[in-house]
Amino acid sequence: MPRLAGKVAFITGGGSGIGRATALLFAREGAKVAIADINASAGDATAHRIAEEGGEAIAIRADVTDPESLAAAIQKAVGAFGRLDILHNNAGGSTPEDATAVDAPLEEFWRAIKLDLFGTFLGCRFGIPELMKAGGGSVINMASNVALMGIPGRDCYTAAKGGIAAITRSLAVAYAPERVRVNAIAPSATKTARVMKLLAGNPALDRMARSHLLGLIEPEDIAAAALYLASDESRMVTCQIMPVDSGVTIS
């Protein structure tokens, strides 16, 4: 039996990169998938691919930094599929503008906080009540190895991802009585188009990439970790920050 048979998943940033890989894998494992992305055409393309493979998905244009937009997207997913079992707060990312707290533009700090941390906060705010209505479920946030180790020159992104790690733990404790599990994945450099562009222009990140023990990570590697956390196989796993980092965090 498929590992997510009968489950409904809501994935932010599902139009590309890790989100797209996760949406495809979840659908292959039997989930009905709602793909939320600010890029409507990218979300549509992922949903179309799932339909071509015989799965069931809808694409919803949503801005995770806008409470009304994200709340409406989650309600649209529940309206289409009847429930919500898996919430994957995947949308986020850094930019080449990031730097130290001394040098980074203030607008870059607020961009990272709003997209990565506030977007995750809002996903949990509107998604967890729907998981509770379904009798419990899995929240999968997206932290980063920068929340677990010192990486110079990325203080905006580090602050946001560190906040995600912290709120993951507090929410896990708060909603365990409701059978809502809350975990986060902490990837290192993953071979998405955005990350490869960042690596090309940042010597510190390039050095970090070369320190990966098993090579750079593929989006499908992160999707596989998300599948485990979404499935009943991880029913006793909560409050965890799971590195998928090719060993870089401790190497």
Walkthrough of the structure:
The chain is globular, with a radius of gyration of 17 Å. The protein has helices at 17-28, 40-52, 67-81, 106-133, 155-175, 193-200, 203-210, 219-230; strands at residues 8-12, 32-37, 56-61, 86-89, 137-142, 180-187, 241-244. By secondary structure, the protein is of the alpha/beta class. It has 8 helices and 7 strands; from the N terminus they run βαβαβαβαβαβαααβ. A 7-stranded parallel sheet has the order 3-2-1-4-5-6-7, sandwiched between helices.
What descriptive keywords fit this protein?
251 residues; 8 helices; single chain; 7-stranded parallel β-sheet; alpha/beta; 7 strands; globular
Write the layout of secondary structure elements.
Blueprint: E1 8-12, H1 17-28, E2 32-37, H2 40-52, E3 56-61, H3 67-81, E4 86-89, H4 106-133, E5 137-142, H5 155-175, E6 180-187, H6 193-200, H7 203-210, H8 219-230, E7 241-244
Parallel strand pairs: 1-2, 1-4, 2-3, 4-5, 5-6, 6-7
Helix pairs in contact: 1-2, 1-8, 3-4, 4-5
